[in-house]
Amino acid sequence: MAFQRSANVSRAALYGTERDAQLPLNLAADARVPFLGYCGPRYAVGNPVLLAINSGGGADEYRERHAEDRELIPLVEAFVRANQGTRARTFEAMSRVYMQHVQTWNLKNIVTPTLEACGRTVEEVCYINLFPYRTRKNNMPSAKARYAAWENIVAPLLNELRPILLIALGKKAGRVAERFPQPTSKLFVVPRTNGDRYVCDEAKAVLEMIRNAT
What we know:
Number of helices: 8
Shape: globular
Structural class: alpha/beta
């Protein structure tokens, strides 16, 4: 399974021999957990894939796991170490909870209209973090680490998922995806606002383009 192979690409492998200056100040073990994303239970090859930049939670004030992490991290860890007999079950459990969490974040204010634009439900898409590890102060991962993540994590997933539409949630994710064109996928970049409190006019224009492409 491509998802499990990707989830087993360690943080150290992405940063290589560099000193990991982007390791969060606190909860270092949690920052080594791959928040890869989820695949909806009704996903079919060719369905849209949503791309986010990376998982939040690396701010210096975070000193203990919040409720979402207490629920999700054990499921991610179980999936990472699953054997052939438990792989499908642990992946489904992780995806189900991750999918539920996505729908509670402020990000839902851009995810929901994006799903509506492409005529899909949250269960019919995959959601992938372009960099699955938390960074210090939630900063952009280093260029070297982003490149390594695409080559070793994202590209193998897209080769298996074969989406017709790639939808980057935010310009940061869009700038990364634009560097690695996919010949069989059309990329759309939906701009985000600070705190994802509303859908800006620029995003509305992109959503209309997505509607016209489906």
